[in-house]
Structure formats: C-alpha cells, structure tokens
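[Discussion] Sanity-checking designs against the backbone

I'm trying to build intuition for which residues belong where. Below is a structure token string of 755 positions. I'd appreciate it if someone posts a full sequence so I can compare it with mine line by line.
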C-alpha cells in the first residue's frame, strides 16, 4: 500500500508541473461538455503535433504555455466523428480559450475505445466494433443489456424464457463464456462462466461498445470472441440536474428511475437509481431488479483527476424451467406424492424454483494526462457477486426418492479485487506517420465459494493472476499496424502468453461514388481460465472439481474489407472469421454418478459478417447486418467405438445455440423534439437439445421486431413508449423456454434544473 501511495503522489506531482494558458473546450451537438476526449494541437504549416491533452469532466483540455501562432486542433472523442478545427492563439490570455463542437457520425466514422483501449476511429482499429450511443439508448429504453445488444451486428442473444431468465451471448461460434464484460472499467463476468445480460440494467448508460474477435492481448482471460463495454454518464451541467420518470405496461410491468447530476468547480457527479418489476406471462415468471449507483469525479489539478464508480444491483427471478418446446408441450407421466404413477399429462412449469442475484461494483481511478502526450491511469477495483438458486423440487413429474426429487439450494460467491496501471504515449504525429504505445500491468485476486446448503461443507478456492501487456500502433501513410502481447503469470496455471497483430490498408482513396477501400487482417491467440467451481467446487451427487484443468484457448484470424460510398455517407463491411477452440472443458460422469471436469473437446467455427451502415437522410441512420456461422466438434476423446457419443457431443456435431444464419437491423431517426427507432433481429434454426429424453434436437428460427420512440412535450417533460416483439411471434430462444409475446411500456420522464 505504501508503494501505491508513493505512486499516487508521483502522478499528482507530474500533473502539477505545468501552467495553464491555452485551453480548448470540447462540447457535443447539444453544447454539453465532453470529457475524456483526446485533443492534439498542430502548428500551421507543420505536420508534427506540438501537444496532446485530454479533456476534463468539464470538457476542457489544458495545454499550458503556447507561443502565439495559427494552429489546427484535432479531437478524438468516443461516440463522435474525428473533428479538425483551425484556431488562432494570440498573446492575450483572454483570447486563448476555444470551444470546439463535435458532430455525430455513421458507425464506420465513429471514434471507439474498446478496440485499442484508447480513442481511435473505428475504421483504423483493425477490428469489428459496433456501438450504441446515448441518443439510441434513450430511444430504445432497454430493460437490460440483452434488449440492446441483440440488435448489434454479429450478436446472438439466447434467453432462457422471459425477464430474468439467463440471457447469454454467442459470438463467432464461441461459447457463451467467451465474452469479456466490462462496466465502468471493471470486469463483471465471473471467470469462465456465462454472463447473464438479462440482469445488467442500462439505466444511465452513456454508451455501449461491442468488439468482436479475440482480444485477450488487451483484456486477458475470457475475451475469446468478444468484449462488451458499458460506460455510465457523467455530470455535465453547472446547474444541478434532477431527472426522474416512470413507466408501466402489460404483464404487470412497472419501473421507475431517478438521477441527480452536475459539475461544479472541478467536481462532477451522477447519482442514480432504478427499480423494475414484472409479473411475467405465466407460472413463476415474476422478476424484479433494483439498481443504485454513483459516478463521481474530481479534478486534482489541471492534468490529474480522480474518479469513483459504485454500482449495486439486486434482482429476484422465478425459474419456471423448460416446459414448452417450439410451441409443443411434451407429454410426461407424473407421480403422486406416494410415488404411484398418474395418468399422462403435459409437462408443466416449475412453480417454486427461484434465483437471487446480488452484485456490488466499486472502483477508484486516478488519471494523469500531460500535454506532452503521456497519460497514466491507475485503477483499484473490487467486484462482489452472490448468486443463490433455491429449488424445493415439488414438481409432480419427478419420481419421489430419486436424485431430482430432493430439494437443493446452490450458492455461489465470487470476489475479484485488484489494481491495474495503464500507460499511454502518443508520439509526435505527422501527416504521414503516427505512433501510439499502450502498456500496463494488472494484478487480480479471485476467490470463490460454491456450496449446496443441503449438503455441506462449502467448497472454496483462490487464485492470483499478474498480467503485463504491451501494444504498439503505427500509421505509416495508408498502412496502420497494431501489434501486441500479454504475459500472464497465474498461481493456478503458470505462465501464459497471447499475441495479436492487426493490419489495415487504405488500398484506394476513391472519389465521390466510391469513397475509399480499406483492407483488414488480424491474427490473435486467446485464453479463458476455468470457472472457479470447475477448478475448486465440490457439490455432493452433482459434480466434482479438477484442479489439473488447463485454460481453454483459441486461435483466431479474420480478413475483410470496408468500401465507402457517396463521400463516406455509406459503408459496406465484410469480414471472414476462422476460430479454432481447443482444451475445451467438458463434464464427464464418474463411477459415483457425479460429473468431473476435463479438458477434452476441440471445435471449429468459421463464417462471415456483412454489415451496411449509412445515412438515408441526415437524421435517418441505418445499420443492417447478416452473419453466417458454421461450427463443428472436431475432437471428443470420450467418444470411442466401444462407447459412441450421441448428439450433441459427437465429433461432427454442430455446437449448440449457434445459428448458421442470423441478421439484425437498426433504423434510427432523431430530431430535436422527437426520436424513433425500429430494431429487428432474425435468428435461424439452430441445434439444441431438451436433455430430457424427448429427442428434440433444434430450436426453431424466429424474427423479433422492437419499436421505440419519445416526444418532448416541452423542455422539461418527455413522453415515451416501447413495444418489444411487436409482431407478436411465439418462439424459443433456448429450447423449452417460451419468450414473451408482444409487450409494451409507456411513461414519462421529467427534468428539473440543468442547462
């Protein structure tokens, strides 16, 4: 701790070393301050950057003393297009404060952060990145992240039933565990486990970035096929702004939220809360979630800032289980309480099983940005996750005195705590050459407790990971190269190294009609550490752990191109991806009847993503995408001639829940007084299994259409409405779990104060 304190003081001392004379303020199209933007200053007639700085929460970048001259200012801010503006610096201090207003852009022009951990135009990132900006999120009004991410290119969301059912993400043929989920800079996915997007509220979310492809070099374990990152809004108005609102809809749906935000004298704040409740469609379908959080920032000097994030979520959901398969109710033979057979009947929902999730996120971040181009970020974080599944097992279809007839209560407690340093250096930039270095060190301690409260004692485990990473970006003329690597030392798995290289070439500059052609290629290696319960857990009569498990790995490469049209207003992207997954973990039955985990499987996925983005009219934006995915199990040593495997575990079988064909559409229209969107998702038939002997081996395809919009009655009151599954389609995203039919919400938002 003394070393961290000393490092803190060094950062502050570095930040205080320069004076503040030349300042540039960056604002969005509504004139609100934009924090965290990268501002570069070029003297007229020279193509080498004279200084690089970051904007504060008040949107101000401080360059210190600069000689009177003509300059060009270049601004990179996440969610906006790159902006270049000429300014004239005089010898009078009063004239050396400039304001630059950014404008929104099509997705291909948008500046993103997740691809390189630093602001960069998406077209130069060498990766496939999709975004949802604040304006889109306000129109969509998603209950949780699954309602928003499902409409992004390349995303396949599978929800086990309705609100509160486990909602998983599949990308590029990978497992649902192969995604890194980051909220306000903190990883919130449990190591090696499926993340539930249905229990991640997007209340007060400022933007969402969805990065497809292997990214373990920058993000470590779990970033095997994607990274999803969410940022919370910061306060931006000098007058405190209170926002509150409520809505209601069918199926007993009701929600309300409130926030208080602002900025004053170098201190910015956003305090927020949300409560959502729904009774659902049928038996045991109730779901509720409460969220409370804070995003607080303080400027220590002109170049140093401290930020605190807090976020607490508490949810409860009924778990009716699988009971309706592609619209069919299987016939079963139930049992009486005494164990006698009853006449055949339909499989019914479980009326009593439930789950409770409680999570707490906290982080403190110190950022030092200097006009010389250096930026240092030191973050301490702590994430607590507590999940309880209670099943009294009173289902009449279960035979008494068998394993499935006994009650059980599973509990999982996971804690991830650590410190991360990230350094960035923007080398002096010219018109033909630019370089940016990113490097860092992360230490994280993971502890977990897994227990069946009816069969003590609890099983616990701990592991310590230390990571060092480096990435170098170089732009030389038309070529951009990104290369990096990560070295991990794990107390459980020893040393792990993962590299990545990406190349982007502007092959043709083009003209008005064909406005530029870019070629892309990347190669990467990813890894995912086993879940704590797989490595340390021990549940009687259910499963036993294996401390000898190895991390799962992937080898991934992709190649593609981007073609722009009509002076860049439209862009067509096409990407081929090829993933080889190996050392995949599988549960194998033992002589005792319990399952044990082993590294057994090897599988393969390849496919293509085609994405069209553009402006139909200045305020009408369209993103449409199609994804083809082919998957196959290559190897499973458990399958032998003496003991052949059946679907879905045999070599040659496709991986479950990965459709060959899927497509998304997002159409957004925005004006000052009103906004509307149409979002569509098509998911084709996909392999699945009922796992109960009904011999059902697929989930049918479906189409889902969502509508949303708002209207400003005046500057303080806004009415809004949203319709999910507007076509009223009946379908299963996960076999056996029927999704909600058409459901709607409508309500009002109010604003007091602000500017």
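Best answer:
Here's mine. Compare freely.
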């Amino acid at each position: 701790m003394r070393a961290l304190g000393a490092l803190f003081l060094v950062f502050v001392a570095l930040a205080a070393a320069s004076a503040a004379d030349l300042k540039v303020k960056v604002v969005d199209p509504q004139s609100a301050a934009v924090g965290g933007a990268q501002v570069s200053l070029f003297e007229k007639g020279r193509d080498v950057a004279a200084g690089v700085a970051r904007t504060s929460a008040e949107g101000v970048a401080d360059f210190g003393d600069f000689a009177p001259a003509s300059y060009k200012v270049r601004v990179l801010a996440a969610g906006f297009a790159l902006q270049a503006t000429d300014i004239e610096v005089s010898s009078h201090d009063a004239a050396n404060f400039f304001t630059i207003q950014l404008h929104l852009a099509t997705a291909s022009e948008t500046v993103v952060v997740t691809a390189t951990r630093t602001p960069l135009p998406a077209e130069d990132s060498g990766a496939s990145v999709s975004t949802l900006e604040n304006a889109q999120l306000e129109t969509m009004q998603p209950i949780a992240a699954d309602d928003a991410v499902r409409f992004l290119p390349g995303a396949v969301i599978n929800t086990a039933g309705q609100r509160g059912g486990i909602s998983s993400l599949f990308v590029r043929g990978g497992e649902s565990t192969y995604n890194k989920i980051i909220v306000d800079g903190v990883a919130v996915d449990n190591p090696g486990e499926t993340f539930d997007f249905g229990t991640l509220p997007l209340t007060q979310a400022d933007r969402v970035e969805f990065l497809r492809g292997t990214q373990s070099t920058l993000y470590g374990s779990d970033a095997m096929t994607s990274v999803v990152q969410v940022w919370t809004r910061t306060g931006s108005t000098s007058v405190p702004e209170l926002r509150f609102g409520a809505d209601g809809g069918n199926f007993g749906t009701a929600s309300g939220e409130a926030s208080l935000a602002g900025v004053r004298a170098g201190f910015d704040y956003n305090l927020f809360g949300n409560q959502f409740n729904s009774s659902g469609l049928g038996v045991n379908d109730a779901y509720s979630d409460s969220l409370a959080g804070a995003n607080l920032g303080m400027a220590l000097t002109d170049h140093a800032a401290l930020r605190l994030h807090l976020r607490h979520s508490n949810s409860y959901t009924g778990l009716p289980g699988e009971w309706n398969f592609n619209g069919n109710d299987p016939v079963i033979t139930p049992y009486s309480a005494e164990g006698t057979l009853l006449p055949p009947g339909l499989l019914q929902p479980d009326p009593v099983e439930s789950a409770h999730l409680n999570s707490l996120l906290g982080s403190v971040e110190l950022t030092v940005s200097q006009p010389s181009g250096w930026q240092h970020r030191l973050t301490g974080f702590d994430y607590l996750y507590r999940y309880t599944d209670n099943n009294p097992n009173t289902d009449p279809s279960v035979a008494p005195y068998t394993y499935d007839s006994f009650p059980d209560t599973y509990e999982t407690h996971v804690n991830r705590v650590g410190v991360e340093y990230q350094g960035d250096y923007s080398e002096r930039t010219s018109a033909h050459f630019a370089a940016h270095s990113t490097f860092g060190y992360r230490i994280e301690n993971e502890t977990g407790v897994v227990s069946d409260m009816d069969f003590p004692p609890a099983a616990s485990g701990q592991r310590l990971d230390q990571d060092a990473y480096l990435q170098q970006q170089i732009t030389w003329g038309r070529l951009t190269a990104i290369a990096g690597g990560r070295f991990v030392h794990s107390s459980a798995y020893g040393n792990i190294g993962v590299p990545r290289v990406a190349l982007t070439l502007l092959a043709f500059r083009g003209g008005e009609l064909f406005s530029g052609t870019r070629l892309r290629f990347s190669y990467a290696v990813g890894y995912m550490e086993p879940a704590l319960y797989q490595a340390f857990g021990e549940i009687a009569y259910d499963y036993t752990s294996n401390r000898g498990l190895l991390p799962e790995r992937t080898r991934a490469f992709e190649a593609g191109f981007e073609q722009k049209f009509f002076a860049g207003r439209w862009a067509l992207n096409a990407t081929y991806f090829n993933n080889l997954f190996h050392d995949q973990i599988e549960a194998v039955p033992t002589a005792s009847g319990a399952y044990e985990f082993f590294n057994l499987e090897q599988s393969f996925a390849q496919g293509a993503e085609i994405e069209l983005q553009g402006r139909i009219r200045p305020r009408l934006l369209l993103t449409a995408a199609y994804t083809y995915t082919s998957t196959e199990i290559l190897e499973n040593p458990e399958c032998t001639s003496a003991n052949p495997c059946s679907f879905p575990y045999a070599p040659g079988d496709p991986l479950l829940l990965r459709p060959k064909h899927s497509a998304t559409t997002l159409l957004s229209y925005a004006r000052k007084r009103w906004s509307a969107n149409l979002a569509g998702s098509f998911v084709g038939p996909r392999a699945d299994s009922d796992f109960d002997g009904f011999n059902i081996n697929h989930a049918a395809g479906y189409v889902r259409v969502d509508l949303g919009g708002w209207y400003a009655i005046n500057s303080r009151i806004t009415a809004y409405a949203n319709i999910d599954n507007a076509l009223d389609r009946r379908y299963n995203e996960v076999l056996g779990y029927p999704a909600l039919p058409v459901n709607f919400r409508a309500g009002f938002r109010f604003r007091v104060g602000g500017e």
